[in-house]
Amino acid sequence: MTHxxxxxxxxxxxxxxxxxxxxxxxxxxxxxxxxxxxxxAIPLVLAGRDLMAQAQTGTGKTxxxxxxxxxxxxxxxxxxxxxxxxPVRALVLAPTRELAIQVHESVVDYxxxxxxxxxxxxxxxxxxxxxxxxxxxxxxxxxxxGRLLDHAGNKTTLLNQVQFLVLDEADRMLDMGFLPDLxxxxxxxxxKRQTLLFSATFNDEITRLANSFLRDPxxxxxxxxxxxAETVEQVAHKVAEDDKTDALLRxxxxxxxxQALVFTRTKIAADKLGRRLQRRGVEAAVIHGDKAxxxxxxxxxxxxxxxxxxxxxxxxxxxxxxxxxxxxxxxYELPYHPEDYVHRIGRTGRxxxxxxxxxxxxxxxxxxxxxxERFVGKKLVISDLPELxxxxxxxxxxxxxxxxxxxxSPSVVATTPWRRSGNRxxxxxxxxxxxxxxxxxxxxxxxxx
Length: 449
Ligand code: AMP
Prior knowledge:
This protein is an alpha/beta fold. The chain is 35% helix and 15% strand. It contains 16 helices and 15 strands. It binds adenosine monophosphate (AMP). Residues 31, 34-35, 38, 57-63, 322, 324, 350-351 line the site of adenosine monophosphate.
């Protein structure tokens, strides 16, 4: 059943009947009104229903499940030091460490006025620190499936009092082969619980998962199937494979981009591009699955703080990256799976902000482009690469010095016509004949930004 917009009239978080501590928390972060997915999902979760929610990244889906979940477990908030008083009551599963960390950051923000404990566990880092926190007792646990099973296997955490299970980005969890892990986790949870499944896309596999994990779920959706975020301007340029780095740098320069997430298809391509950019003096970093967790976090942090201008990423590593008002995403290579195009461009234009998605498409990628266009149901506008502006005129034309040395009046020196020749800017100085004038070196070819 699709439960649509009878609830659209509720326009404030207060109207959604969330606890004042939660309303205060989101207001202090700057949320003015609930987003459409929040308006639809929050009342249903508060009413105790299982939910299948189709919501793209950037729609505010994290708050859509976290707020009602916190509302319902807040009655158990306490400041006791006894671990027994802090059993895991809500479990959120996410496909990647980045998404898990990000969801947990939201949980911390939203629960700041409540005496509830939360933590986040994921692989790629040592177990000990996580074990110590889990042993002390926490109410909200955000986890990637594999690491959760490690902890559950060691009995570091018990899941037999979980009242709420959230599967975030369920489509990606299935893509990444987590189904067996999910089934094992499910066996550790009480049968009586509320389950919320969030997914950007729905297909038969997700529906099968929902049918086996959820009880009589309601379905909510806020975006038409497979639509790309509507606030994102999408541009494509035809560029030969070998010219892509130059094209990228030209775009960065002309559009004056201070922050862009750049996607490649493979880890090797990401590393190669990262090295090339660094060699050309650009503040760039690379994240992909083979990078150590600490390096990925450092790169992300540097990117968020603006120290890194171009973050080169593969699709999986980029899942869950949420940077407020990320202005631009570049598809340096189109993805093999068209749905990844939608995920990628969903990184910009989040929560209603406008964004820009630029695709560099070589002739070898024509088939991938056609796949993307079929998936999003429209043709991408192919435009020429933007032109570079003419550089400023040289401050002191060499001919002035030359002509004064000759004690001759440089009557025509002031006319310094600039003309373009492809990407190169050509400067012609008109000089008084017949004396040879020392040639100033040509301005740097600006096409090679
Ligand atoms: P999500 O889709 O959960 O990844 O959220 C995307 C972004 O939207 C995050 O930066 C949230 O902090 C932000 N956000 C979530 N809900 C709201 C809201 N009601 N108003 C403004 N921003 C929001």
